Amino acid sequence: MSTNPPSPAPGFSSRASLLLQTTHSLCTLFSHSSPPSRIRELFTPSPTITEHGPPLLPFLRTFSGPSAVSDYLGILSEHLSLSSVQYGQPTIDKDKETVTISAHARFTWLSPPGTGTSWTEDFLYMLSEFDPRGRVGRWDVWADPLSAWLASRGKTVQSVLDSSEEGI
Predict the structure, then answer these.
(1) Does CATH place domain 14-166 in 3.40.50.300?
(2) Looking at the record's lineage, which domain of life comes first (predicted)?
(3) d(CA 85, CA 167)
């Protein structure tokens, strides 16, 4: 995995290259904590964003409509910081016009009671429903909700495992 998402490879159709370029731009802006207004430019007027997982945290749900990007990124930035992002190679399904990309990053929980708790995790994006200009209509995120939930309580998976071993 590299720090920056790979640029589109030569030999792709212009449509596929456009979708990969949008993916590259989104990953770059997201990993640099760019303002939501900059990221918003990559989306259709009324996108849908879903971070999959049980509704234990405020960002584990679906955001849709004109404010979806700013709502999702606003809630994320209230609770999480992100660093050391490494992206894998994007995969495109040209027929379905979907792009998937995996990533690895370090997260830190920012709100009480878990303020300052950090962990690393792998996560996956799937971008789809692109418009003719290559803007994203749907952004699905699969991450590790257990690690985030534990961090919100000041714990890590390892600390829970260590404490359960002590009780055996």
Answers:
(1) no
(2) Eukaryota
(3) 36
DSSP states of 68-106: HHHHHHHHHHHHEEEEEEEE---EEETTTTEEEEEEEEE
Reference 141, options 92, 84, 73, 78; nearest CA is 73
d(CA 45, CA 136): 9
pLDDT at 38 over 90: yes
Please tell me which residue, 10 or 110, carries the higher pLDDT value: 110
Site of tokens 């770059």: 28
Q: Tell me, what amino acid is at 156?
A: T
Neighbours of 65 (CB within 10 A): 11
Task: State the Cα–Cα distance between residues 17 and 33, nearest whole angstrom.
Answer: 24
Q: Apex CA 35: angle with CA 72 and CA 146, to 5°?
A: 35
- 8 A C-beta contact, residue 27 and residue 136: no
Q: Which two tokens stand for residue 102?
A: 């995996």
Q: Whole-angstrom Cα distance, residue 65 to residue 77?
A: 19
Gyration radius from the chain CA atoms: 17
Q: Which residues pair with 101 in a beta bridge?
A: 125
Its pTM stands at 0.88
Whether the Cβ atoms of residue 56 and residue 147 lie closer than 8 Å to each other: no
Judged by DSSP in three states, 117 sits in coil
